[in-house]
Structures are given as structure tokens and as C-alpha cells.
Amino acid sequence: MIAPLSAFHRFRQLNQQGGLLLPNAWDAASARLFEAAGHPAIATTSGGIAYARGLGDAQRLTREAMLGEIAAIVRSVDAPVSADIEAGYGLSPQDAALTARGVIEAGAVGVNLEDNGHGALPQPLFAIEAQCARLAAARQAADAMGAPLWINARIDAYLLDLGRNAERRFAETLARGNAYLAAGADMVFVPGLADPAEAKRLAAGLNGPLNLMALPGLDGAKPWFDAGVSRVSLGAGPMLAVMGLVRRIAEEARAGEWPAMSAHHYGFAEAEALFERR
């Protein structure tokens, strides 16, 4: 089920206009809750999906399994959905193209594609030329289907703390970002970057919009938006927060109590209404 062109264009507009706080869902329930709260678009979290299915992050699910989860989330909401496809479930441009086609067929309107080899490469990240070829292949696959897929090129230099020093890491990220944009990406995603001043430098140097990821301990998205960041994603944060809450409930239940469960109660009638047939 390919999304209507209006959904692709709406998601593109949301990213281009800036100030987009994008929540990441791991199942139909979380997606519906985000939509009910008024979020105009939703993304998936590969880590959250993996954890909910008893696996670790970093491509432990197969391409087919992840596409099935993405399709289920797309079916659960009316809002446009962007898919976290990790590193594309393969190293080659052909793998990236195959995954992009699958995402479009699942009904998603955007993707995140990482430059992280997840242990399958001699070095942590793909060579710039190799990742450019993979992004170009994903773009060509989308174009062949007539789908203006929003491609978000993720760079893991900050997340993995790569580079001999902070300036080298920044320069590497900027060079990769502009190369990826030239290869066909629409946006650059740099998880792990936390400093608004550095975000402002990066946003100013990129030839396209910048996406950052919410991190524990930060005050919120406003300083990043003020610095020129276009989009802030919640990432696996909501799923991890739910895990933290469940752990607390589990510990309290061992003592025969359930104050946290009561404090965060979501009514049965509310849940039934959330999943009424559309």
C-alpha cells in the first residue's frame, strides 16, 4: 500500500518548514498515542521495535521482519510515517534500494539510512563514497516508483565518538553531510550531538536541513530549533522511558504495591476508544 502523494508532500513540507518534533513509535499502540496527542507525523524506532520483540538493536531483525513492523504502524495511523531502516539490511547499493522499495510499499513516506556498518566493515562507518552510492541507489529506487521519499542520511560520528578531537569529528560530519546531500539525501541526521552552539555551526555549514535526536538531561528542543536545527527526533527515548516505568512497576509489585501503575493509569475505555475500527 503506497502512501498517496499528498502524504509524501505533507511530510516534506513539515521537514522543510522546520520546528518539527518527531516522535518515534515501536508498535500500533505507541503510534496511535502519538497521533492522538496531535503530532502531525510519526517515525519508527528500530531499537524500540527490536526491544519489544526480544532482540537487541543494530539490525538484529531481518529486512522482511522490520518491513512488516513498519507496515503495521503505517496501517494504525492516518499521519505520515517515516521508517528507521538502520543501515538498510545489507552493505551494497542494491540492498539499500531493495529496502527503500519495501518501505514505500509498506506505506511509509520517509527513511533514515545510517552510515554505520554495525560490525560488518573493517571500520565503524561506511566510506563516504560507498554511503553516497547507497543513498543514490535508494533515491533512484524511489524515483522509479514515482515516490518523493524523504531520505534522512544518518551520520554516527558523534554517536560513536569518532575522530581524534572534537574539531576533526565536526569536520568529518560536515563533509559527510554535504556529500550525502549531494548524493540524493534530503536531510542530515546527527544523533549524539548535544551542544546548541555546535549544532548552529553544523546547520550553517550544511547544504540542507539538520535533524538531531533528543537526549536525556537536555532541557528540550527549543535551543536546537533556535540554532537552526529543522527537526528533533525522540528516537528510542520513549520506548526506553516505558521500560524504565515497567521496571519500577515490577519492583513495586514485588512488594505487593502498584503506585507507579496507578499514577500512570490509562483507562480501559480510553484504550478501547483508541483502537476503535476506523
Automatic annotation (TrEMBL):
This is Isocitrate lyase/phosphoenolpyruvate mutase family protein. It comes from Chromobacterium alticapitis. GO terms for molecular function: lyase activity. InterPro entries: ICL/PEPM, Pyrv/PenolPyrv_kinase-like_dom, Pyrv_kinase-like_dom_sf. Keywords: Lyase, Pyruvate. The lineage of its organism: Bacteria, Pseudomonadati, Pseudomonadota, Betaproteobacteria, Neisseriales. Gene3D superfamilies: 6.10.250.510, Phosphoenolpyruvate-binding domains.
